[in-house]
Amino acid sequence: MTDLAMIHRSESAVSIELQTPDMTLNIGPQHPSTHGVLRLIAKVAGERVTDVEPVIGYMHRGYEKLSEVRTYAQITTLVNRIDWVAGFASEVPFIIGVEKLMGVEAPPRAQYIRMILTELARMASHLVFMSSYPLELGATTPLMYALREREYILELIEEVTGGRFHPNFNRVGGVKPVYGGGSMTKKWSLDLPEGFLQRARDAMDRMEQICDDIDTLVSDNELIKMRTVGIGVIPRDKALEYGLTGPNLRASGVAYDLRKVENLLPYDEIDFDIAVRQGGDCYDRYVLRIEEVRQSSRIVRQAVDQIPSGPLQTKVPRVLKAPRGQVYSRGENPKGEFGYHIVSEGARMPYRLKIRSTSFSNLSILPWILQDALIPDLVAIMGSLDFVLGDVDR
Amino acid sequence: MSDTPDTPTTETDVVEAAEHDGVETGALQQWADALVEELGALGSTVEFDTVRIHVDPARWVETINQARKKLELFSWLSAIDWSKDVEVGDPVDDVDTLEERFEVLCRLSSVENADGAIFVAVIDRENPFIDSLMPTIGGAEWHEREAHEMFGIDFVGNTNLIPLYLPDDFIGNPLLKSYPLLSREVKPWPGDVDVEPMPELPEIEATDDVESDTEGEES
Amino acid sequence: MNFWLELIIKLVAILGFVLTGALVVIYAELKAGSHMQGRIGPYYAGVRWGWAQPLADGLKFLQKEDLSPTGADRTIYGLAPYVVMMSTIAVFVVIPFGPDMVGRDLDLGIYFILAISSLSVLGILMAGWSSANKYSLMGGLRAAAQLIAYELPLVLAAAAVVVQAGTMSMNGIVLAQSETWFTVAGIDVAMPFLLKGQIISFIIFMIAVVAELSRIPFDMPIAESELTMGYLTEYSGIRFTMFFLGEYASMIAFSAIAATLFLGGYAAPGVPDGLANLVGPGVMLLKIALLVFVIIWIRWTWPRLREDQLQRLAWFWLIPIALANIAVVAIFKVVF
Questions:
Q1: pLDDT tens digit sequence for A119-144
Q2: pLDDT band at A8, cuts 50/70/90?
Q3: Which residue in B3, B116, B199 is closest to A324 by CB distance?
Q4: Mutate which of A94, A236, A316, A338 to test chain B, going by most B C-beta atoms within 10 A?
Q5: How many other C-beta atoms can be found within 10 angstroms of the C-beta atom of residue C240?
Q6: Domain boundaries defined on chain C
Q7: Interface contact flag, C303 A134, Cβ < 8 Å
Q8: pTM of the model
Q9: C39 CB near a chain A CB, below 8 Å?
């Protein structure tokens, strides 16, 4: 309201209104619910947020610039640090982009291993969300339940790749030959560790169990529903306008999953459903991710059963020089579309690497969606977008 | 393939790339041609399953908005700096004939199927400006702010072109090719040590699966 | 007995009880909470079961620097924790642990309790305002709004009991519950008010207690994920310890009030009158422990409400129901 309108109103009103300027509330960069170093400059009138300006960049590491002086093999190390809760999932689109440039294709077994690990990373990421989101709403217990189960996933990832968060496991033309059992056993092995497939099946039992547990404890909880149903509704057209992808988009009623439409990994040999919900509110975004964990577990079960035997790497030249050209390669990260636009000028290093990180786009809707939210809703909405600051800032 | 690699590094690279890419290019090229026709764009490049539609910068906003009727999802917006003055990384091979320019890229995707295209507008490198997508696509605001601070491109119509990632008092546009990577100037990247000896090895020593872990290791 | 001697003994007893009680409740919360979360909880401190963890925590807090923000109103900032602590401790003066085990059996016992316990709002508001921190201020304001809203159902629920008991003295209320209600097969049966038709009051009272304590699901004044730590944001060291102890002490205090009002206080079935002073404290502690456990249980299970939902719950549901409840109780009292 302009000052003039304010004066006009106060004159016409019987009692003189007090002008109360909005308070500027600085949320972050050190704040329990900003998941790292996000800062929000919020204008608040009492509990109501009238305007919000996100400030990002506290963790900007300049990966796009650094990539210009790294060889393709070295960039793998960088890209799994972008979205660290699902490091493996962001490696895959990059490496497949380079493979497209080079004209090589990974052997089927390597592709299956990539698929299994991508889904494991997806589950790990969603479990972090399932644990941290109730925490935003004040429920502390689901945190422990979900994080405990995530350990089983991380153990599997570590067993194969040797790293819990940063696998750095993909190579152009396949996956790194496995040092059997990661850091746990030093035995040399050139395939998946012995018994891995069975342990993966066992872990999937636990995943389905924890999904049911979380459903009982959180999803069916009346208080959770009071806090999330109808809050932070993102309509379909706004979601598309702001480039939301992944669970955030699917909760708004768009059945768009790059696992189905893109042909990076052999998902077409697997039977699974895209989880979609229509409401577009915080509750839908939350429940949808639980459903996605169930679907991922289905994928892993089938992949583990169907995994073909064969080599893990195809023949590639020792010095990786991609031919000249531009390729955009994208894959379904746990948080949405993760893409790399690789501009190659025929050198060992890319001329330019544009990283399309998911959380950056997902977070860009914040100023729009937080208008007129209450401060408790601000936390609920922000949490439901499931972002990782490393993914926002790259 | 319009932009075939003309400076092959090894024979195998080129052969394999061509074989692999030749399969689907036909259908994709047709799709791209139809889109060019529909939007009145300048032309298209299809390579490595990636469609690029070349757009007249004067009709940038109009074209994108028209394309969004079909390709609804605004995915990202960025730029490429084609420059002769390269401080970091390798320069373009034919650097002498290079036409210095910025390319502004905007990716739109369909949410029904795998369709999607990158719209490219070439703008002047000395006086870089282009109309902003922000009034019609809210999500473009952050992407344009990033491109503005990284490349110095002016997005006419974006009302909030303040730095996004960089500190407010930062001077320079870091993603320009002429912008040095200062930490690299001070201390060379130790990773180079791993890489440098490699060219002396036999070039295409076909690594079979057992021993190939030396490739790119410890990177 | 010498008046002064008696006073000192009572003071030391109350202080000792409050402080050790708070430590025990903190330990119980640490341990019970961890088991509910599938953790072990404190383990090493004190050789076994981590029993010394609250002590160790307390010592750690005492060593920490007592910070106060530059813009803070130092006097008020320093005073606030003690106001909160004082209001909690004063409650124990009138809570009976046996027929004679009571600091001072005021005729207006319950009235005194409700009056003095609402003083803690003042302390919290002081803390929130004087911290010179926006989060603290918002936390303080939320706390004020919340405590005012929930003071009413609390008082109304207690009023229903007072109507039924016909006295405001805490001891009188206990005695009213030990009276013979009816006789079955020659056995005199006495019932606590909870089973004598006050179940609605009890539920309203417990909800209001959780709100008064600012604990989940009503912990908006602190709401870690929203306001970092609310009015506690700037506190550290000994002053934070005071708030912390005060929270747990008032948990005991409110549980003791609820035990007295609804669960029959120190009275237990089959205890001869002569032993009441001996057995009474044990019985009372058991009842307190039960209620404290319920409060802990709620905290580790539920998420928090939103500020407007909390106000709606109080004004639209609890207060009308409590008023209707008083009317019903009064009618029964007059008619029968």
A1: 999 999 999 988 888 888 888 888 88
A2: very low
A3: B3
A4: A316
A5: 18
A6: 68-335
A7: yes
A8: 0.83
A9: yes
